[in-house]
Amino acid sequence: MSNIEKGVSPADPIPMLEVHDEKDIDQDLPSPVSAPQPRPAKAKLSATTIIPIWIILSSSVIIYNNYLYNALQFRYPVFLVTWHLTFAAIGTRVLQRTTHLVDGAKEVHISKEMFLRSILPIGIFFSASLILSNTAYLHLSVAYIQMLKAFTPVLILLISWTFRIQDPNKKLAMIVFMISCGVALASRGELRFNLVGFVTQAAALTFEASRLVMIQILLHGLKMDPLVSLHYYAPVCAVINLGVLPFTEGLAPFYEVMRVGPLLLLSNAAIAFLLNISAVYLVGAGSGLVLTLAGVFKDILLITGSVLLFGATITPLQVLGYSIALGGLVLYKTSGSK
């Protein structure tokens, strides 16, 4: 499996280092000149423990965000994403000083040239992906958005093929066709289709796929787990978003904070941050197949939750289309993209 697929995705939570990010590229680092003190190993959790925790946290963040946007009418995705990133930037630095969870940051040396050439452009794409994906919740149901996310591997492959990072083959072409047909059927069956929401989510997926490909190219050889990655990207993205906020939502969200309650926003950001911590333990907790199936189960759970909690309507055509897309997704992630 290539490094592009192994990240924990980011959902629209600030993972939102889907996991992914993606993020977990391995390379032996040179030994320091002085004799190193052994770094305390992180406590390991079994797959049966961490996977349910990750599924619950990942689902909770998405449902919580949707609740804020639609039930409470706090329709300020740029502000919410900026708040999450600010919380994460502070949180990772607190963890760095009080725990060993972010010790990996000591082994990553970011020069000014590397920051400008790699971290900043990737951060711009990350910000765009987060803002657009959260904005999509203002127009589309949680269920339909999860179905559209299945198209991400297709975009990754198309970008990789376009820039000749990866060579196409018949197996990958079949997977692209399979996922594309599945997502097309799911879209055809969507009863509350919204063109603005669809285009917004499509743009978010394109930025996310581009970000993952850029990580593969620009950060090849760096060892960054999800928390270390967040440690570097959260401040960058928060500053970028702060520059966007005055031109998109202005001061309105600041006035609305007291209406929805500061504690609600604090708990929302805390759950999103806990998701990133769980991602550290998730990586390496199971095989690629186990983690892929866990992700599929999480998506199905989210779609079910969207129906039960928010009254989303799922048609038989969508069930068929999404099943086909999921089949292609599992093939993609278990084939090693070869």
What can you tell me about this protein's structure?
Helices cover 69% and strands 1% of the residues. The chain has 338 residues and is mainly α. The termini are close together.
Nutshell version of this structure?
With 338 residues, the protein is mainly alpha-helical. The protein has helices at residues 3-6, 47-71, 77-98, 112-136, 142-149, 152-162, 170-188, 195-218, 226-248, 252-260, 262-282, 288-310, 316-334, and strands spanning 8-9, 18-19.
Query: How can the largest sheet be summarized?
Result: none
Order of helices and strands: HEEHHHHHHHHHHHH
Please, what is the average pLDDT? 85
Shape: globular
- Could you tell me how far the N terminus lies from the C terminus, measured between alpha carbons in angstroms? 8 Å
DSSP strand tally: 2
Radius of gyration: 19 Å
Strand-residue proportion: under 5%
* Oligomeric nature of the chains: single chain
Approximate helicity band: 55-70%
Which stretches are low in confidence, meaning pLDDT under 50 for 5 or more residues running?
Answer: 1-11, 14-38
Attribute tags:
single chain, 338 residues, mainly alpha, disordered N terminus
Task: Set out the fold topology.
Layout: H1 3-6, E1 8-9, E2 18-19, H2 47-71, H3 77-98, H4 112-136, H5 142-149, H6 152-162, H7 170-188, H8 195-218, H9 226-248, H10 252-260, H11 262-282, H12 288-310, H13 316-334
